[in-house]
Amino acid sequence: MFRTHLFGEPSIIVYTPAVNKFVLFSDTNFKQEWPTVELMGVTSMVAVHGKAHTRVRNFVTNAINRPDALSRIAALVQPHIVTALRSWDDMGKIKAKVETQKMSFESIAKLFLGKEPGDFLNSLDKLYQGVLPGVRAYPINVPGFAYHHALRCRRKLEKIFYMELDKRKSKNENMVETIDLMDGLMQIEDDEGDKLSDKEVVDNIVSLVLGGYISTSLVSMWAIYLLAKHPNVLEKLRV
């Protein structure tokens, strides 16, 4: 445990499993925040805490972790992964970071938004690429700074997702089937019959796509790199 400064604020760093567990499970004593909460969304699962966090987390996990949802996720994502792997084989040599980012974003976009590769996804990808540098940057909202550019990209993403939300409301009034995560978040109800607000749906879509994009692409990239460096491990996986 030691004291330092992060994002201009005095901070205490802890790293042992026992202390980390104590902090993460003590919602009443420790308020969990992102320094750039506006980029993630003020009502997103990563920004709210306490009862509000539990409520949103339950909505999201219910939309994703139910058996029928997991089966649908596998059916949606698998063809994209197989297609990507075959294309890499045809290319012979690839840039792992670029290709895993592309594969991850296309799979997540299909799962979360039901969108196929094309101009729409390319524009979303560019906006998310603009948001990424601002997530861990100093929150200085002045032109020329990463945070300012990230905020502008985030507002454009929000506008796009609100338009998509309105479009689905007008088309899906009588539809009960859940097509993707956005549909799931729009339709899911808690025990009292309440649904997420439009802002909660949009904020969580923005943050979940961003979080899934970063984590999935990095894990995939390092898995490919390490398997290439250790062919004996790859052979064991194939058995």
From TrEMBL:
Q: Where is the signal peptide?
A: none
Please give the InterPro entries that the UniProt record associates with this protein.
Cyt_P450, Cyt_P450_sf
Q: Report keywords, A-Z.
A: Iron, Membrane, Metal-binding, Transmembrane, Transmembrane helix
Q: Which GO terms describe its molecular function?
A: heme binding; iron ion binding; monooxygenase activity; oxidoreductase activity, acting on paired donors, with incorporation or reduction of molecular oxygen
Record keywords: Transmembrane included? Answer: yes
Q: Which Gene3D superfamilies match?
A: Cytochrome P450
**One GO term of the biological process aspect:** brassinosteroid homeostasis
Membrane-spanning parts: 205-228
> SUPFAM superfamilies, per this entry?
Cytochrome P450 (SSF48264)
UniProt lists the family membership as follows: Belongs to the cytochrome P450 family.
Q: What is this protein called?
A: Uncharacterized protein
